[in-house]
Amino acid sequence: MKIKGQLRRITDIAAFAASWQATGGKPTAGHAAWGKARVHLATDVPTGQFEGGFVPPMSLKADTDSAGRFGFEVPDGFKPFRGQVVAFQLDSVPSPFPGLPPLPVLSPLYRCAPFKFSDVSVAEQQERQMVYIFPTSLGPADGISQAELDDELGALRKSLKLDKLRATITSSAVDVRAEKDGGDVRFKAHVRGSTSADLGRLIEAKAGEIDIDLPGPDFIVGLCVSKDDIEAGIRKGMAKLSKKVSQRLIADAEQRLGPLASLVTLSVRRSRHVQTGVRVIHLPGGLPDQQVPVFTIVGDPAIGLPRKLY
């Protein structure tokens, strides 16, 4: 079977919305060709569940042409399963190793609602589905502030019975340190757009490799603090914060789009660490005060239509 479509860039959101409503979903104004991008057709093969992962692990891949067109040949054996079209902006950065090609950078642009392959009709297979994308940006008020992060992790510290738990938003990550009974836990967390099949999840706060240094023999330490419990608790706390920010972004889109809000899907195309102030640290002994920058993490979304592609 065939799955094919074309990405279009919304250039004037007001003109596009008016044309969408006037034409019953076939707008003739306010958009232009998207150009080059990468599209994955995610599947829930073989378990019937969409697996986690920024790039869908069980997926077919295609690069669009200059007009934004893409297509997939789906094996007949996939008909009992589900699919989801996920589009990315494709950029690159220089390789850190001399002589090697640039490294690809993928930024989420669009996710449709999952659909059953068996529900895609013969007529729909012949038709190129149009996908419209409007990249937009938000302000610091819609982001994750240092104060908000402190509140969330304060509750987590109590639930895990940690002695200390600190998280600092830096210019590129979140530095986290936890302490209990002499044990020390450190890791960096990164916030990025979600490509989950759950369209209500817009961002993921991924804890990187967690370095846990525990004192004494393991059998003694195990009576005082569980490495697995700390790691699981931290990841759960960050997931809860991600859900809260996702709900905020969805509410913002509903306010902007009005009657079109129920038809769109959102993806966070990039996260920015924006400096929103400074914290003054007073040092003893007559030493000069130190000013530490304070950052907020802002997720810039891409609005996509339609939500339901098939």
The overall average pLDDT, rounded, is: 85
Count, helices: 5
- Residue stretches low in confidence (pLDDT < 50, at least 5 long) are 214-225
Q: Total strand count, please? A: 16
Number of domains: 2
What is the end-to-end distance?
13 Å
- Strand content is 35-45%
Largest sheet: 6 strands, mixed
Tell me roughly what share of residues is in helical segments.
10-25%
Question: Quick one: overall form?
Answer: globular
**Helix/strand order:** EHEEEEEEEHEHEEEEEHHEE
**Structural class category:** alpha+beta
Indicate the radius of gyration in whole angstroms. 23 Å
How would you sum up this structure in a few lines?
The protein is of the alpha+beta class. The chain has 2 domains: 2-135, no CATH class; 140-246 and 267-299, no CATH class.
